[in-house]
Design goal:
2 domains; Type Iii Antifreeze Protein Isoform Hplc 12; two-stranded antiparallel ribbon; TIM Barrel; 12 helices
């Protein structure tokens, strides 16, 4: 697996998960809400806040043909694409203040551009990374142009077949950018947990030799925990100050309390995963005192034969290792023993 830095944070390999709070449309059209959301994301334990940079005309066209009307069994059915994006777009004039807010809070701030003009605009703000949204993974010219800025590029794979991912990765490498992360994503809102397929996190890393992670639309923290166990080094979740704000993404976004619980669970999962190591800690070594060993179970006179009745493998573990038990049974005692004596003898 590769590693790269986003500002001063190392992402990949043995580094902790890079946890991203996705602002998305959860600003409610109010910059004050957006600012408070960034502050809440910091309190909740996020490493980064991610914006989306588009205008309705840069992501679609203002057309009322049926092709442009959402009818996919989604939360947004019945709306035309242009109208939806008009209400959800983050005003470009907010970006500088939001980035400054994030920086002052100790958060990394970057964005998903949806066309070349967005990339050019974000370059003027010196964002440290880029995210390609799931539905843009087929826009190879956009990926190539974004990757050409030579900053880490994180790509969601929500609607991608294998060939789509291959094309996207090749586009980055073609312009010399190898700082690539692929996020397993299920592009349903909210996503059913049975479609999470977290084993893909491991496969993406191994198949493409990239950092892998999760862009999650399921409810709760279960899927991020499982992703962590499968090696996710990036976890992204939609974040909202309060679902009562409403908006396109509110119903599947985590609030501060929920996000805090998720971050804690992910950090605990990272600790639980540990490393391959058969050596015992000092505490574990002390635990061996409660293992089994050989003890005298009845008084024995010198010259008596050791039997299953007078020599037993029992707790605690201060006597001879039980692996010698069968060698000793049937031999003769070399001295007197009392019940409860540790059986200790040099063995070949």
């Amino acid at each position: 697996m590769i590693t790269f830095k986003i500002k001063d944070i190392l992402v990949g390999n043995d580094s902790p998960c890079f946890i991203i709070a996705e602002l998305s449309a959860n600003h409610g059209g109010d910059i004050k809400i957006a600012i408070e959301t960034i502050k809440a994301a910091k309190r909740a334990g996020a490493d980064a806040i991610k914006l989306q940079t588009f205008k309705p005309e840069t992501i679609t066209i203002n057309c009322k043909n049926d092709d442009f009307k959402i009818n996919q069994g989604t939360l947004w059915d019945g709306q035309f694409l242009y109208d939806l994006y008009k209400t959800t777009a983050l005003p470009w004039e907010w970006h500088n203040e939001l980035i400054n807010t994030a920086t002052s809070e100790g958060l990394i701030c970057f964005s998903s551009p949806f066309d070349k003009t967005a990339v050019d605009f974000l370059e003027t703000l010196n964002v440290p990374a880029y995210k390609i949204a799931s539905f843009e993974i087929t826009d190879i010219p956009l990926i190539e142009y974004t990757a050409s800025k030579m900053k880490p590029i994180i790509i969601s794979t929500g609607i991608a077949e294998l060939a789509d991912i291959e094309l996207a990765v090749e586009a980055c490498k073609r312009v010399g950018n190898h700082d690539i992360a692929l996020l397993k994503c299920t592009s349903s809102y909210p996503a059913p947990i049975e479609e999470a397929n977290m084993i893909m996190v491991k496969d993406l890393a191994e198949r493409f030799n990239v950092v892998s992670g999760l862009s999650d639309h399921t409810m709760g923290a279960t899927v991020p925990i499982v992703a962590t166990a499968f090696g996710a080094k990036i976890i992204e979740k939609h974040f909202i100050l309060d679902r009562s704000i409403g908006g396109a993404d509110a119903s599947f976004s985590m609030n501060e309390e929920e996000f805090t619980v998720m971050v804690k669970a992910v950090r605990e999962a990272e600790k639980a995963i540990g490393k391959v190591d058969y050596a015992l800690t000092e505490k574990q070594k002390k635990g061996r005192d409660f293992s089994r060993s050989l003890y005298i179970a009845e008084n024995i006179k010198k010259g008596a034969v050791f039997t299953e009745e007078n020599l037993r493998s029992v707790r605690p573990g201060f006597g001879l290792h039980p692996k010698y038990y069968n060698q000793i049974i049937g031999t003769v005692a070399d001295k007197d023993y009392e019940k409860g004596d540790r059986f200790l003898k040099e063995m070949n």
